[in-house]
Structure formats: structure tokens, C-alpha cells
Amino acid sequence: QKEVEQNSGPLSVPEGAIASLNCTYSDRGSQSFFWYRQYSGKSPELIMSIYSNGDKEDGRFTAQLNKASQYVSLLIRDSQPSDSATYLCAVNIGAGGSYIPTFGRGTSLIVHP
Amino acid sequence: AAGVIQSPRHLIKEKRETATLKCYPIPRHDTVYWYQQGPGQDPQFLISFYEKMQSDKGSIPDRFSAQQFSDYHSELNMSSLELGDSALYFCASSSTGGLQGTQYFGPGTRLLVL
């Protein structure tokens, strides 16, 4: 079992809807959590980082972290066709000064007009 | 704002040849990471450097080596290339003074081994 799990999708939502992307992780010591967006053939682009339980909002994006249940999610409000991409969840433990994140395999999001 | 720079952006090599990929981190970032991403795969961590010293090692083949120079740029040297080395290679950088573990990725080098 991979340490960071994501549903590969594709997740298809209509334009204007809320897209909900989920990620679970296995290591309870994980401290830092990241969501990256990656268009095909392009590099991952950081969308959100979250470190504490609860919600963190940035524009149309909201990250939610629940350490007790070991999951982190990303909500995209008012989804646009330009949001169509693969969303990578990354988790790192941060122990001993190491900040190497473990990536999930990504969820493909399709926003259709 | 300045971003991570990688060169070359595209590279075509034959089997058993060597390749050198370069990465220039964001100014004042002290840590560089290298990743390999095959088609449909998540980025696989290869190696990282902090203040010019190797800090972590991932799934980097013995045929590959890397270093970080005094100006903080890094080079990934790949020898005896194999067909399976064809992938996107990303460099990312971060600052230990910034948000913990926040990495910023470069545009990548697409390597094709024929």
C-alpha cells in the first residue's frame, strides 16, 4: 500500500460546481501537507500547504486537514475548465530535518462546460 | 518572482550515452531536490542537497550522480543511459527559513533515450 493514497479518477464535475479531492496518508508523524496542480507535461505547481487541523482557504481553494483520521482534502469552488489537471497530494514527516515529501499518484480532474 | 530554472528543457540521447541536467534554484533557496516522473506516474524523489551537501537519497540509480555547487546550482549526471530513463526530470528548491518543506518546482527537462 502506498503511503499516500489518492483516487486516480478521473473526477468529472460541471463548470461552476465544487470539486472535492481527497487524500489519505499512513504515517501518523506527518507534519506538512501540500496540494500541487500539474497540467500534462508540465511541472507541479503549488496550490496550498497546510500544517494544522482544520480548514485553510485561499481564493477558490480550501484545504482541509484531519490528522486524527489521517486525511487531507482540497475543495475547489466554482470549478472552471482551466482547473482540469492532475492534483497531487504530498505529505512529509519533517522528522530529523528531512522534508522529502511523499507524493500520491494524483487525481485527474475534468471540469466540463 | 524568480522561479527555478532548468536546462536543457528537452534532451534526446542514445542508449549508453551520458547526459547532464542543470538546475538553478530560486535565489536564497538553500535546498535542491531532483525528481523523476515517468508517464502517468507521480514524481519519484531521487536526491537532495542542502547547503551543497547531499542531504537525502531516494531511488537514484548508481549510474546517476549529482552535486550542488558553491552558487547553489545543481547538476544531475546520468551515465549509461537506458531506455527506461526516458522521463521528465524535475528540480525543486526550498528554503529552510521558509514554510517547512514547501518546494517549488522548475519546468522540468524532458529526456528521451533512443
Structure explained in plain terms:
The complex is a heterodimer of chains A (113) and B (114). Chain A is built from no helices and 11 strands. Chain A has strands at 4-6, 11-14, 19-25, 32-38, 45-50, 54-58, 61-66, 71-76, 85-92, 102-103, 107-112. In chain A, strands 2, 4, 5, 9, 10 and 11 form a 6-stranded mixed β-sheet that branches. In chain A, strands 1-3-8-7-6 form a 5-stranded antiparallel β-sheet, with no helix packed on it. Chain A is globular, with a radius of gyration of 14 Å. The mean pLDDT of chain A is 91. In chain B, a hairpin with a 6-residue loop joins strand 4 and strand 5. Chain B is globular, with a radius of gyration of 13 Å. Chain A binds chain B through residues 31-32, 34, 36, 41-46, 49, 51, 88, 92, 94, 97-101, 103-106, and chain B through 31, 33, 41-43, 45, 48, 55-56, 58, 88, 90, 94, 99-108, 110.
Write the layout of secondary structure elements.
The complex is a heterodimer of chains A (113) and B (114).
Chain A: E1 4-6, E2 11-14, E3 19-25, E4 32-38, E5 45-50, E6 54-58, E7 61-66, E8 71-76, E9 85-92, E10 102-103, E11 107-112
Parallel strand pairs in A: 2-11
Antiparallel strand pairs in A: 1-3, 3-8, 4-5, 4-9, 6-7, 7-8, 9-10, 9-11
Chain B: E1 5-7, E2 10-13, E3 19-24, E4 31-37, E5 44-50, E6 53-57, E7 64-68, E8 74-78, E9 87-94, E10 104-105, E11 109-113
Parallel strand pairs in B: 2-11
Antiparallel strand pairs in B: 1-3, 3-8, 4-5, 4-9, 5-6, 7-8, 9-10, 9-11
